[in-house]
Design goal:
The chain has about 250 residues and is mostly beta strands. It has a single domain, classed as Porin (Beta Barrel), CATH 2.40.160. Helices cover about 10% and strands about 60% of the residues. The strands form two sheets. An eight-stranded antiparallel β-barrel has the order 1-2-3-6-7-9-10-13. A two-stranded antiparallel ribbon has the order 11-12. A hairpin with a 2-residue loop joins strand 4 and strand 5. The protein is elongated and about 80 Å long.
Length: about 250
Amino acid sequence: MKKYLIIFFMLMFMATGLAFSDIVSFRVGYFIPRAQSDLWDIEFENLDLTKSNFQNSSFSFAYEYFLTNEISFQFSVDGYTKKKVGTYLDYVGYSDLDGDWAYPDIYEGDFYPSHVFSVSNTPVQVSLKLTPMGRTGKIIPYVGGGAGMYIWTVTMQGDMIDFSDEWWDPVEQVDIYPIYQVDAREESKISFGFHAFGGFMVPLANRISIEAEFKYNIAKGSFSGDQGFEGFEPFDLSGYQISIGINYWF
């Protein structure tokens, strides 16, 4: 709820400047997470999850205010979320009176240990945008960058194999590990980061243009340590975003 309230008030703030804005933009894109922190690594090493599983569509909304013919400020809100079920590699689960246990997958097993890993990220960003060739022409290239507030959520729900607690099955003569139910969540957390972008606009009519853009986000989110993600380094929120959109010029 906190995330949506923050977004609402940011949009209200930007809307107050609509009469003075030069461009309003709507974009649809594709977000590719960099995924370079230890929680990402553990998920990719132990489960049948890959970085490509967490690529997904994104949506953006922006107001742009021109200071000069070549320089403008831009306020934007992006949205990305992805949820994926991952199954542990090389292990099956057995249940007995003492709980659930992970055995090597040379055994048949009672079930396949798995959990849901979910990530969402909503950057609210302020940018300085440069259009070096001005706002006229058949193609209008631009570059820019700035800072932003990243509102993010990470959750993990389902089975978790505790590889730090090794047991020995004397009957089967094999190492086994306990399986616990996990419900870890960091919700509507706020971090700060930076971004850079480049692209071009193509005018279609007097007040309408289309655009293509590439953006790189750099941000990390720190876990609170009391919601099930204890001991992890800051979570990598960085990634690449490719988008296309439509602009309305005032």
